[in-house]
Amino acid sequence: MNEAMKLNRTEVADSGVYLYPCLIKTVYVLILTFLPTKCRRKGNSHIAMARRMAPRWFAPAFSLRAGSRKAGTSMPFDNDDNFLRFDSVKKSYDQKTLVIKDFSLNVARGEFVTLLGPSGSGKTTVLMMLAGFEDVTSGDISIAGQSITKTAPYKRNIGMVFQNYALFPHMTTAENLAYPLQVRKMPKADVKERVNRYLDMIELGDFGARYPGQLSGGQRQRIALARALIFEPTLTLMDEPLGALDKKLREQMQYEITRMHKKLGFTVIYVTHDQTEALSMSSRIAVFNEGVVQQYAPPVELYEHPSNAFVAEFIGENNFIPGNVRSIDGKVAQIDIVGGLTISATVGQGLSVGGRTVVSVRPEKLFIQPTEQAYENEISAAYVTHRYVGDFIRYYFQLADGTEINIKVLNDLAAPNFVEGEQGKFVWLIEDCIAFPA
Ligand code: ADP
Ligand code: MG
Q1: Superfamily for the 319-437 domain
Q2: CATH of span 84-304
Q3: By the number of CB atoms within 10 A of the CB, which of 59, 172, 221, 370 ranks highest?
């Protein structure tokens, strides 16, 4: 039953349909409504049973109940890159195939690190191993120099935010926020003070007496965020927390999370498949594909200097021009492309003379002639069509071998006009294109 639920959650959450997990969750919420009061007196066997039965996305409810303050405060914090470390972590669910192939990552305290990758690339699995709800098949995870791979989830002092809020529906907003503090036995007066402070911080100061059912999606997610932060966890994990919100609310919440992060300085491991979200919020991003980190770097570096064709394609947009490497001189390669043309490109990792290559160049780095922009490469191609996208126009050209070239031009008076089939010339700099081995 547990396995079926896990798979279902993954599939359903990834496809953006939330009804089924919500139903299952409600059942567990109802179970929990009784557990804390009735079962504690009788011993913990029911709690242990519910913990075993609960799907993995609900597990934080249990860790909030039992979480230990000591785990967070007794650790000798350091400020270097080694606050959180994954060392060659591998994960297999079926003992045959590795879902996470060899995952290593260093995170400094206070960083906002995002795991970015296509659906099914293993992002949630990494978070679940970090939180302790999935075993590590091999390798090690450590926080502040101490291995946590054998530490029980509730002792890791980790806060979590999910797409589906996971608020207790029978508790008011203030009670939801007070809960993690009460289970940590914080004195009543301090709980009240801190709950009010956090409600004010998320600008819901007047909403303390409302129930989750009386709040909008955005407000609920702000409460879920505050609840994950209020007990000052060692780490806060967020698994696609904004996936259920519409675009406008999502942008507001991105701002809200960034603001809280700046103000409170907590450490975040954030998961998303939305690259704009990752680029605008993170101190560093790890781009995932098939359980392997392709590149781990700050947003600007990732965008400007992708280390391979997968990252170049995944982050932002790129044109890919196929060709052969004629020569390499230091950082610059000469590439023969279709129609007897030669272009110069920055040498990408693993490029070798004589090999096949794809040269990546972003649509906004290409300029249609005539232009005042400086340039080192110039080629021509047949105009196909263009599309207005409001503040800019997208032009589509085609090389003789059918390779499509997409150019983004500001929608101003200088935007050119072409007729179908007409040859257009466009130019760009060597530093704006990278030749990757194909
Ligand atoms: P992501 O969060 O990047 O979409 P996941 O970590 O959820 O990816 O899943 C990575 C891979 O592991 C997928 O192929 C998924 O089907 C598989 N997987 C995830 N959870 C389980 C599980 N509990 N049992 C078996 N396979 C799983
Ligand atoms: Mg996921």
Answers
A1: Nucleic acid-binding proteins (2.40.50.140)
A2: 3.40.50.300
A3: 221
